[in-house]
Specification:
The structure is a single chain. It is globular, with a radius of gyration of 14 Å. The protein is mainly alpha-helical. The model has no long low-confidence stretch (mean pLDDT about 90). The protein is about 70% helix and about 0% strand.
Length: about 100
């Protein structure tokens, strides 16, 4: 069986949201949370917002904050929806800007 990838799981998450399949959505969210990386974090932040995946959003925001200096220079970061950027910067403010590796 081919290795699952984040793009496929995001599409499954979208379909599970559309067709009201919470069990499938939960499985996708758990898998995605375990596979957050620099290459996928912006896509996952966007997907978490679009498909109401609060746990994935929390984990992706945490990942982004731990690598904030790398995140803010990524082209994809500035393309994130305003609502997602606001959540990230609210966390930055709440933590007193003590973020990083």
């Amino acid at each position: 069986m081919a290795e699952l990838d984040a793009v496929l799981l995001v599409h499954l998450c979208e379909l599970s949201e559309r067709y009201i399949l919470p069990f499938l959505k939960n499985i996708c969210e758990i898998w995605l949370e375990k596979h957050i990386c620099m290459e996928s974090v912006c896509m996952l932040l966007d997907a978490a917002e679009k498909y109401c995946c609060s746990s994935l959003m929390s984990k992706a925001v945490e990942f982004a904050l731990m690598r904030f200096t790398d995140m803010i220079v990524a082209d994809e970061f500035l393309k994130l929806p305003e609502k997602v950027l606001k959540k990230i910067f609210e966390e930055v403010h709440k933590r007193g800007c003590k973020i990083g590796r």
